[in-house]
């Protein structure tokens, strides 16, 4: 049997107020034996509470666990609560969704993705990233059986998180350039359809930039729909290649260096400006798009020191050596890193 399969969610809901129908949706999918809600400290009130109300209304048994990070320990804690009858619902931001996704995958049970914000493209994809001191890059787990995204809840989440989601999508522009380069130089296999879907998802943001505003349900819906199609590009490729190139390597390097990294999408946004410069593309257009969605474009805005930016640029090529990018096999020198960050006004 081929181990190359494309995984997709069975049902996807992106609607205002849909969170109140969680119980009904679980019943219609025959996932109503036992629910384990994985949530976070802040997302319990906005996400888990309405889910609990809905499950109680439909007489569905449930349990709740709050996790505070995407670590191996959190995964183990969640796994201990899973029985073969359990369906795991991840209700929260990226860390919570990753913990719910990976623990359900490890225990072979279904997973429902319920984002409380639209901050990155792992919401719909089969990838999960778990933090340890050595890496924050994603591994393949499984796709959610259903995605229930309440666009009203997303709209009420801090706009900084939605802006980060836009930046994670804008990163697709350089991720695809890197993939094309690897295809040409290293004969890496390339999916035209995954690449086209990835670029289209980024364009859904840049073409709608004037409509992406805080606290507006239609804005949150645009971002979530774009993250959905970006996630589908990842599903088709079977890896994060269509959405993660040199700009993500830079962000992963920052995750390693910094005690308190900024948001994933924010770091990737800075990386995209600089990597587009290296690709000889229109890096100013990337910067303008990020500014227009109120995502940061300088290290100072997110409290990262200039020297940490330089160090991350120099070590980025070592993060995932098997994935060829514009940084090449040997990376860039300190002088080149400084020049790059300075010319693009990231520092
Ligand atoms: N699987 C994949 O392919 C990918 C995974 N990632 C991973 O995802 C994580 C980043 O996700 P991200 O969402 O940016 O960050 P977090 O999951 O760290 O969430 C950031 C903060 O936002 C809070 N929050 C979320 N929703 C709301 C809301 N509606 N109202 C108020 N606060 C809210 C969270 O609360 P709380 O404290 O309750 O959690 C948390 O404190 C990283 O671990 C990254 O590695 C990133 C990209 C792709
Ligand atoms: O963040 C991602 C895509 O946006 C996942 O990428 P990584 O595989 O590099 O972790
Ligand atoms: Zn990303």
TrEMBL record:
KW Lipid biosynthesis (keyword) present: yes
Cofactor note: Binds 1 zinc ion per subunit.
Entry keyword Metal-binding: yes
E.C. number(s) listed in UniProt: 1.1.1.261
Catalytic reaction list: sn-glycerol 1-phosphate + NADP(+) = dihydroxyacetone phosphate + NADPH + H(+); sn-glycerol 1-phosphate + NAD(+) = dihydroxyacetone phosphate + NADH + H(+)
Annotated coiled-coil segments of the chain: none
Swiss-Prot/TrEMBL keywords: Cytoplasm, Lipid biosynthesis, Lipid metabolism, Metal-binding, NAD, NADP, Oxidoreductase, Phospholipid biosynthesis, Phospholipid metabolism, Zinc
InterPro entries assigned to the protein according to its UniProt record, in alphabetical order: G1P_dehydrogenase_arc, G1PDH, Glycerol_DH
Sites where the protein binds NAD(+): 94-98, 116-119, 125
Cofactor(s) needed for function: Zn(2+)
Source superkingdom: Archaea
GO cellular component: cytoplasm
Subcellular location: Cytoplasm
One annotated GO biological process: glycerophospholipid metabolic process
Amino acids binding glycerol: 121, 168, 248, 264
Residues given in the record as Zn(2+) binding sites: 168, 248, 264
Pathway: Membrane lipid metabolism; glycerophospholipid metabolism
List of residues binding substrate: 121, 168, 252
Pfam families registered for this protein in UniProt: Fe-ADH_2
GO molecular function: glycerol-1-phosphate dehydrogenase (NAD+) activity; glycerol-1-phosphate dehydrogenase (NADP+) activity; metal ion binding
Function, as annotated: Catalyzes the NAD(P)H-dependent reduction of dihydroxyacetonephosphate (DHAP or glycerone phosphate) to glycerol 1-phosphate (G1P). The G1P thus generated is used as the glycerophosphate backbone of phospholipids in the cellular membranes of Archaea.
Subunit structure: Homooctamer.
Protein family: Belongs to the glycerol-1-phosphate dehydrogenase family.
Protein name (Swiss-Prot/TrEMBL): Glycerol-1-phosphate dehydrogenase [NAD(P)+]
Species the sequence originates in: Methanobrevibacter thaueri
Gene: egsA
């Amino acid at each position: 049997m081929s181990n190359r399969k494309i995984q997709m969610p069975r049902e996807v809901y992106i609607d205002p107020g849909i969170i109140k129908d969680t119980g009904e949706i679980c019943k219609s999918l025959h996932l109503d034996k036992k629910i384990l809600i994985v949530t976070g400290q802040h997302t319990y009130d906005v996400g888990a509470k309405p889910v609990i109300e809905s499950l109680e209304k439909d007489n569905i048994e449930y349990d709740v666990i709050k996790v505070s990070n995407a670590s191996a320990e959190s995964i183990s804690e969640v796994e201990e609560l899973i029985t073969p009858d359990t369906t795991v619902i991840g209700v929260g931001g990226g860390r919570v969704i990753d913990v719910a996704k990976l623990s359900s995958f490890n225990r072979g049970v279904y997973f429902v993705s319920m984002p409380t914000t639209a901050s990155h493209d792992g919401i719909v994809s089969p990838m999960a990233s778990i933090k340890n001191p050595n890496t924050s890059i994603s591994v393949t787990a499984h796709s959610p059986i259903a995605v229930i995204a309440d666009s009203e809840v997303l709209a009420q989440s801090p706009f900084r998180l939605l802006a980060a989601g836009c930046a994670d999508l804008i990163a697709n522009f350089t991720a695809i350039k890197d993939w094309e380069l690897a295809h040409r130089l290293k004969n890496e296999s390339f999916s035209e359809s995954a690449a086209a879907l990835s670029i289209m998802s980024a364009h859904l943001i840049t073409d709608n930039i004037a409509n992406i505003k805080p606290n507006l349900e239609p804005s949150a819906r645009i971002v979530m729909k774009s993250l959905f199609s970006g996630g589908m590009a990842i599903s088709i490729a079977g890896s994060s290649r269509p959405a993660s190139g040199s700009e993500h390597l830079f962000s992963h390097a920052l995750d390693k260096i910094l005690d308190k990294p900024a948001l994933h999408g924010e770091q990737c946004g800075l990386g995209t400006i600089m990597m587009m410069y290296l690709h000889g593309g229109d890096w100013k257009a990337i910067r303008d798009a990020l500014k227009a969605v109120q995502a940061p474009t300088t290290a100072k805005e997110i409290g990262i020191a200039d020297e940490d930016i330089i160090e991350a640029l120099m070590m980025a090529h070592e993060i995932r050596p098997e994935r060829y990018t514009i940084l090449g096999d040997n990376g860039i020198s300190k002088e080149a890193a400084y020049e790059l960050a300075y010319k693009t006004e990231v520092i």
